[in-house]
What does this fold into?
Amino acid sequence: MKKIYKVICFMLLAVCSIIYDFQKPEALIENQTMSSYVLLEGEFNYQGKYEFDGKVTVKDIINEVGVSKYANLKALSLDMIVEDESRLYLPKYKDVCISLNRASQEEFMKLKGIGERTALKIIEYRQKQPFLKIEDIMKINGIGEKTYLRLRDDLCL
It folds into this structure.
């Protein structure tokens, strides 16, 4: 007799669980808001996590948060659509910066830690696809976050 009660309770629990599983995700989807964010660093007037909805460009973010008077706007492609969970760094303006999209191999080799092979890799990458932001340099094999952080103030697009 106890086995029958156990089986009935187990069956009832299984049915309730199945019904709950089918109903719960719909309720969660209806209540979720789809917002994206980007981390702003450097000469933006707002630093940190910037949340946005839909598609926005770098220009839209600059118009909303503003930049310091020392910002080097040549370091970013203003028409670029911002990707969710990405990072944007806006360096200070310098009279001399090395353009990721136009510099020669010799100019790249003037940067600390960039040798002949890495300079050639940068040039090969930009021939396939132009750099849209300074952070794209980390897509090059051999350039990680530490190297990027060391070089980012000396680079522009």
About this structure: Residues 127 and 139 are 14 Å apart (CA to CA). Residues 2-31 form the longest helix (30 residues). The helical segments are 2-31, 58-65, 105-109, 116-128, 145-151.
